[in-house]
Structures are given as C-alpha cells and as structure tokens.
Amino acid sequence: MSALLAFVGWCSTAAPIVFLRDSRYGMPAVQSVHLVGITVFLAAVVVLDVRLAGVGMTDWSLPWLQRQLKPWALGAGALVVLSGVLIFLGTPSKYLGSNPFRVKMTVLGLAMLFHAGVVRRFIDSDPDSRPRRGHFLVAGVSLTLWFLAGWAGRAIAFVP
Amino acid sequence: MSVVGWCEWLEHTPFVLAIAESTWLFPLIEGSHILTLPLSVGLIMIVDLRLLGLAFRDGPLSRIMPELLRWSKTGFAVMFVTGVLLFTTHAGQAYGNTFFRVKLVLLLTLGINAAAYQAIFYPRMAQWDQARRTPLGARICAGLSLVVWIGVIICGRTMAYQL
Q1: Are B85 and B78 in contact (CB under 8 A)?
Q2: B66 Cβ under 8 Å from any chain A Cβ
C-alpha cells in the first residue's frame, strides 16, 4: 500500500502532470474530456436501460442495441478512465482524503459488477419489449448506480 | 439600465441570492445541469453518429431518430431551466466571461443547424432509411452538431473554473 502511495506521489510530481496542474487551461481541458466521455458513455447506458425497462426504444432488440452502442461506450469509457487518472494524479491528496471520491469509486465498482453479472444476462436473453416488473427493476438499479457515481463525482467539489 | 447592470441586479434579487447562498440548492442545480448531459447532448450525439453512418447503421433512421429525440427533448428542458438558474447566480461575471459568450454563440449555431436539418432533410428522411450513406448535406449537419456540442461542453466546463 505504501509503495502504491509512493508511486502515486512520484507520478504527481512528474513533469507532464505538473504542467497539466499548473497551466491555466490544463485541468479544464482534461475535465472537459472527462465530461464528454461521461456524456457519451451514460447516453449509451440510458438507451439500453430504457429499452430493458420497456419504456422506450421498443422497436429494437436489446442485443442489437448493445452491439451498436458497444464500441462507442467502450471508447468513451476509456476516455473517462484516462482523463480520470490524470485528474487524480494532479492532486492525489485531494481525492485520497475525499469521502465523495470513495463513494464514487465504490459505486462505480458496484455498477460495473451489476452490469457484468445481472444486466448482461438480461440483454443476452433477448427479451421482447413488453414492460415487466423485474426488467424495470434491473434497469432502475443500473441507472441509479451509474448516475449515483456521477453525483458522487460532482459532490467532490462541494463535500469534504 | 446596461446589460451588465441588469445582470448584477438579477444576481442580487432575493430569489437568486437564496439559491446562491443555499448549501444544497446550488450544488443540486449544478449537478442536475451536468448529469442531464447524457440524456440531452449524449442522445443527440448518437443521432449524429447514425447520420454520419458510424453507429446504428442497419437500423431505419426515420424510426430511430424520433425515438432518441423524444428522450433528448426531456433532457433539454432540464438543461434549459437549470442553465438559466445557474446563469442568474453568477450573471455579472458570466456576462463578461469569454467562454460563456462563446458557449452562447455555439448554442445559437446549433439551433440554426438543427432548424436547417429539420426544414431540409427531416421531411425526406424515410427515402434514405435503408441507405448506408445519408445525403452529404445531412452528414455536414451531423458533423457540425457533433463538433459544436463538444465545444459547448468544453466552454461550460472551463467557465466554471473562472466564475
């Protein structure tokens, strides 16, 4: 653990990170990339969950929607992670001591586990678009987890 | 009264002061503004990608587009209300901020672009439903929309550092 912290500390003093942190538009630029990535990624989540809940996009099958959105969701997700790491390394102490940051990472982990373990199975079963209580619930939990991670991220700026 | 004067007056009205000074209201409105991006702009970007032939290629456009736009309209309603409220809390500074001004110009451009698409291409959309390639003009509208929306997000995020 202490070796990891030392590594993080070393990274945060590396020239490119210092440049990003101390230049006028460095962090706003990285934060903008983070936000554009989140916008595309969560839009894909919304489309899938709305269809799973049976309240919209009912003309298309879930596996088809999933296939169409996957490359964009993965690309956007990669941008989010990459920019997120840069933001974190800019001021690691700010994030390591932040409660909302811990909540964000925990909820993010839960959202990914829930997608891989539960949502994926529902998508693969290729359900028709008739609204069902179970599907509605799964979509609701998925949307809640992903957006909760977003809210926790926003809270970093306001809550210690 | 000058525009700056009006902005400063607006910022100090009791209603706006109550939002700006509230512990929860401002973060709640700002959070809503940002987290409605996927529903509003995100879905528009998916439509743009479809028009450019980069996503949803084998699905009929005339059915996909209205469905995505229906959801996105709800998002834009939230964006507009929260955006206006956010502006009122920093009206004076925002008015003089370059990124805010550029953001407004970009939004105006997007409005004109969307109106042009609606007038020229929307009525004929069913004709190229199954076509892999949409008409050049439609692709130009979509490309412009995609790039300018990214510009709007960059301006919005950057101005938050300066107010």
Answers
A1: no
A2: no
pLDDT of B1:
73
ipTM exceeding the 0.90 mark: yes
Distance CA B140, CA B53 (A): 12
Cross-chain CB nearest to B55 (options A50, A68, A147):
A68
**Distance in angstroms (rounded) separating the CA atoms of residues A39 and B38:** 4
- Indicate whether A160 belongs to any domain: no
Question: How many angstroms separate the CA atoms of A125 and B55, rounded?
Answer: 23
Q: Do A151 and B31 touch (CB under 8 A)?
A: yes
Q: Structurally, how many domains does chain A consist of?
A: 1
What are the residues whose beta carbons fall under 8 Å from the beta carbon of A21, sequence distance 6 or more?
Answer: A27, A90, A91
From A148, A4, A19, A149, select the one nearest A81 (Cα to Cα): A149
Res A154: pLDDT? 95
Residues of A with Cβ-Cβ distance to B86 under 8 angstroms:
none
pLDDT digits (tens, 9 = 90+) for A75-110: 999 999 999 999 999 999 899 999 999 999 999 999
Task: Tell me the pLDDT tens digit for each residue of B132-143.
Answer: 788 899 999 999
A11, part of any domain:
yes
Q: Is residue A89 part of a domain?
A: yes
Range of the domain at A29: 2-155
The whole model's pTM is what? 0.94
Calculate ∠ Cα A25-A86-A77, nearest 5°. 110
